[in-house]
Amino acid sequence: MDEFLQTVLVPGLADGAIYGLVAVGFATLFTTTGVINFAHGQMVMLMPMSVLVAVGAGLPVWLAYVAALAVMVVVALTVEWTAVRPFVQSGQSASWLLSTLAVSVVLAELLAVPYSGESRNFTYGVSKHRFDLAGLAVSPAELTAVAALFVVAGLLVVFYRRTRIGLELRAIADDLDGAEAIGISRARASQIATVLSALVAAVTGVLVASTQLVTPSLGLSYTFYGFVATAIGGMGSIGGAVAGGLVIGVVSQFAGVHVGSLTVNLTVFLLLVVVYVVRPHGLFGAAPVRAV
Amino acid sequence: MNGGRLKVDALRVRYGGVTAVEDLSLTVEPGTCLALLGANGAGKTSTLRGIGGLESAGGGIWLDDLRLDNLPASRRARAGLGHVLEGRHVFKSLSVAENLRVAAARAAHKPELDPLDLLPELRPMLQRLAGGLSGGQQQMLAIARAVAGAPRVIMLDEPTNGLSPKLVGRTIEILADLRDAGFAVLLVEQRVEVAQKLEADVVVLRHGHVAHRVRGTDPELPDLLQAAYLS
């Protein structure tokens, strides 16, 4: 049992928390705009990469974080303008799939520029050195990842339910024409959702970089794992994103330890297929209501 | 004073190469009602959506002295152009209270007419999800939501569509209340009796053009409409 906890559950939940955060980022944008941003994984890697570049340029670490956040917001707004806004609640999934994938490729190429695509060690995040906690070896980075997942998801739920802007984003998600007819701006809502998603990506990026080398190509990997978590949890559901991420983390870790490292992707995507067969709208997704 | 003056000059709405509305001009004064009547495809809904900014349109649109036609739909709404859309378009995952709250939050000022005074039948269902309401209740909510946004002009697109005769009567009462409260009311309808009971000015549309302009009380209105429908 202890071995299962140490080799599967602890690392699985920590990885799953990262996948969950990526999925929460997807859900944050999808809820309002109906667009899944396939460049989100690159946004995740943009944060630590920007910090590294800023520190390399001589900025103190705190200022590097501020500069990196500014870069995240500027890039997010650019992505929103070019690849998201034209397709807000349009139902043109082929269009936004291609537009966000195109942005993903562009960002991946740009992320490879500063260090010629080589990996870099990130020492400005949370410690990955393990310590003993109730007989289990865990690291502050792993604990922070799990805590961050629930804190970020909780804050977003409160934001959507309790704030005026959150209510407006839900209104846009429900009915774009109805929302515009009462004065809610589609462009502003899309911008807010994209920046929120980018801030989630910033948190995710720091946590990713705290546990592994910063590699530009990691973005694509996190995009696909996050997408699977989103799909399993249910599109647009924050709670579903949390659950989907944790499930993916534990299942992939179990497959890696007990079946073989080459079966991890196979297992994760097979799980997606099974969930889609049993519950086509994901574990927490709601089937569309049909008027009768 | 609730109302403002809506003036539309030479409105033109096109979908690709298809002209839906051409050279439509109208004025709605505060405290009056103007009804657009016509057959399906005559351009009634396109007119409202063009004025509201939900479809791109040519021509000039003014709310009092403020020119609206260069503004996006959301800014037209905030300027005082209320729009009750065809098909209700309530926010189904929000409660009735949240539907009203989100509209009021975007209003330029507090509405002089409380939407729950206009539609007290909504009070017992404030905490219910809008998606769980009947069609008639959703229509009442759609009107109340428009009023919560403190408009000066209210455009309503077929508000009696699909309602029971009793609710059609109630809707006419509400429209009369809005007009009497000083709002300029621009109405799209299929039922001629609604325009007649509201004593509205009537514009009959045919193929996107104005075919007739008459008073709703004009005894020739049914014949004019029949001619427009059968043309």
Automatic annotation (TrEMBL), chain A:
<dbReference type="InterPro" id="IPR052157">
    <property type="entry name" value="BCAA_transport_permease"/>
</dbReference>
<feature type="transmembrane region" description="Helical">
    <location>
        <begin position="222"/>
        <end position="248"/>
    </location>
</feature>
<feature type="transmembrane region" description="Helical">
    <location>
        <begin position="16"/>
        <end position="36"/>
    </location>
</feature>
<protein>
    <submittedName>
        <fullName>Branched-chain amino acid ABC transporter permease</fullName>
    </submittedName>
</protein>
<keyword id="KW-0029">Amino-acid transport</keyword>
<keyword id="KW-0472">Membrane</keyword>
<feature type="transmembrane region" description="Helical">
    <location>
        <begin position="65"/>
        <end position="84"/>
    </location>
</feature>
<dbReference type="InterPro" id="IPR001851">
    <property type="entry name" value="ABC_transp_permease"/>
</dbReference>
<feature type="transmembrane region" description="Helical">
    <location>
        <begin position="137"/>
        <end position="160"/>
    </location>
</feature>
<keyword id="KW-0812">Transmembrane</keyword>
<keyword id="KW-0813">Transport</keyword>
<feature type="transmembrane region" description="Helical">
    <location>
        <begin position="255"/>
        <end position="278"/>
    </location>
</feature>
<dbReference type="Pfam" id="PF02653">
    <property type="entry name" value="BPD_transp_2"/>
</dbReference>
<comment type="similarity">
    <text>Belongs to the binding-protein-dependent transport system permease family. LivHM subfamily.</text>
</comment>
<feature type="transmembrane region" description="Helical">
    <location>
        <begin position="96"/>
        <end position="117"/>
    </location>
</feature>
<feature type="transmembrane region" description="Helical">
    <location>
        <begin position="192"/>
        <end position="210"/>
    </location>
</feature>
<keyword id="KW-1133">Transmembrane helix</keyword>
<keyword id="KW-1003">Cell membrane</keyword>
